[in-house]
Specification:
With 456 residues, this protein is of the alpha+beta class. It has helices at residues 18-29, 46-61, 106-121, 148-154, 159-164, 173-179, 210-213, 252-268, 307-328, 347-360, 374-378, 405-425, and strands at 65-68, 74-78, 87-93, 130-135, 197-205, 218-224, 226-235, 239-240, 276-285, 291-292, 295-304, 331-340, 343-344, 364-369, 384-389, 439-440. Strands 1, 2, 3, 4, 5, 6, 13, 14, 15 and 16 form a ten-stranded mixed beta sheet that branches. Helix 3 (106-121) packs across helix 12. The longest helix is centred in the C-terminal third of the chain and has 22 residues, at 307-328. The protein is elongated. Bound molecules: (2S)-amino(hydroxy)ethanoic acid (HGY) and manganese (II) ion (2 copies).
């Protein structure tokens, strides 16, 4: 890997290098490139491991101790020079959705590598140990349940979950882990001790278009959306499309179509303003032109920044689906496959990062995250922050996903200086209240919840 180029003005610290970042993203993008379209580097598949090994090698080249934990998270450690034992951590994920983009997760990982490179280039020795993290299987695209690696770290998964959680083919998470050499029975070894970690920061593309619309280079996240996900199977009666009169049918696909439109109309109700609900996958069986569909498997993803609205909308969707299926004489099996609460990230940590933005002259805005992130899970055991960088048109989870290396480099500079600032202030522990870990969303002072105060 080429050395980071020195900044023009002599004497100032070296800044993140857009060329280095673009080069790393290019190399990672070759792994899991899908001949049909985009990137398919799905969790617990060999391409994900290959990407972890590639980046693990870059981190070793920077002199860090790199290990793979029991569930496939890659963890790189840079020792601190004082008795401060609690590490400052930063990173993201390398897995993608199917036919996804080249930046979701990857931006946070190359930012982590570049930040370590800047530490070396600027001869920085921090008081705290630093911990670079590449989380395994963040995307819920395969199993429905997302953030597997970070959930293992915070202790939010047990062995039973690994055998319960399965993909659309019925392959369990435990089987998928075994397929690529991870032992589900060692799950607990991946858990971190709260005392060992002082703060966690994740850089990520916004996966929305607020920054672009406001011409801001940085977003600082205050609330991360929750998500509730269902797998639904509708069982009707397959039959001959010519011989079966309309009044004698139990058409599973017609029922699924009505449920799909109900999902959309519930999310569009004013009482559910802020809810985003999607039927993302739908499999029809036997799926032949002359056979009435006897079975449909479908997945529903419900998101909101407000926990009560998320709960109400999810409940209404299941109730409506049940009523549609009863009226149509088909059977509904609805399985809750994932349920993550919205999370308010700690203001004091966001303030630290915003002071760095001001110092660097990086225009930022405080904003919610419609997408879920590993930082939302890490926030259960450690103060966490998310730094957004713009992505073109807000496009994500599509091959067209794109972020400029210059914007990513600006984000890295913020991350780098925020880590150095935390290293200082956390060494002189501020009042205990500043160490507050985030909380799951509840009413904010004044009774309203974050989403009610409208777009920022
Ligand atoms: O789906 C999400 O919210 C994220 O991209 N994992
Ligand atoms: Mn992501
Ligand atoms: Mn994603």
């Amino acid at each position: 890997m080429a050395k980071a180029s020195k900044r023009q003005r002599p004497g100032s610290p070296i800044d993140a290098d857009p060329r280095q970042l673009a080069e790393m993203i290019e190399k990672i993008s070759r792994i899991g490139a899908d001949p049909v379209a985009g990137i398919s580097r799905v969790g617990y598949t060999l391409p994900e491991r290959e990407a972890h090994e590639l980046v693990g090698g870059w981190l070793r080249d920077l002199g860090l101790a790199v290990e793979t934990d029991a569930v496939g998270n890659t963890i790189a450690t840079r020792p601190g020079k004082s008795v401060e034992t609690a590490a400052i951590a930063f990173g993201s994920h390398l897995d993608s959705v199917t036919h996804g983009g080249r930046f979701d997760g990857i931006v946070g990982v190359v930012a982590m590598v570049e930040a370590f490179r800047l530490m070396t280039a600027n001869h920085i020795d921090t008081r705290h140990p630093l911990r670079g993290v590449i989380f395994a299987c963040e995307e819920g695209a395969r199993f429905g349940e997302s953030s597997i690696g970070s959930k293992a770290i915070v202790g939010a998964l047990n062995e039973g979950d690994l055998s319960r959680i399965h993909d659309a083919d019925g392959h369990t998470l435990a089987e998928a882990m075994l397929d690529i050499g991870f032992e589900p029975s060692r799950l607990r070894e991946a858990r971190w001790n709260r005392a060992d970690i002082a703060a966690f920061i994740e850089i990520h593309i916004e996966q929305g278009s607020t920054l672009e619309a406001q011409s801001r280079s940085v977003g600082l996240v205050d609330v991360v959306s929750g998500s509730t996900r269902f797998r639904m199977t509708i069982l009707g009666s397959a039959g001959h499309t010519g011989g079966t009169p309309m009044q004698n049918r139990a058409d599973a696909l017609a029922a699924a179509a009505e449920v799909t439109l109900a999902v959309e109309s519930i999310a569009n109700q004013p009482s559910h303003r802020g809810v985003r609900a999607t039927v993302g996958s739908l499999d029809v069986y036997p799926n032949r032109i002359t056979i009435i569909p006897g079975r449909v498997d479908m997945s529903i993803d419900v998101r909101d920044l407000d926990p009560d609205r998320l709960r109400r909308a999810s409940t209404e969707i299941v109730n409506r689906a049940t009523a549609v299926c009863q009226r149509r004489g088909v059977t509904l099996n609805a399985e809750l496959i994932a349920d993550v609460s919205p999370v308010v990230l700690p203001m004091w940590l966001r303030e630290v990062v915003s002071q760095v933005c001001n110092k660097l002259g990086a225009g930022y805005c405080v904003m919610p995250s419609g997408a879920g992130h590993d930082a939302q899970i890490m926030a259960r055991i450690v103060p966490a922050a998310i730094i957004f960088v713009p992505c073109r048109g807000g496009a994500s989870h599509v091959p067209e996903e794109w972020a400029s290396a210059t914007d990513i480099a600006s984000g890295v500079d913020v991350l780098y200086h925020a880590v150095l600032k935390l290293d200082q202030i956390l060494s002189h522990p501020p009042d205990r209240h500043l160490q507050g870990v985030s909380c799951e969303v509840g009413p904010l002072p004044g009774g309203n919840t974050p989403a009610d105060d409208g777009p920022r």
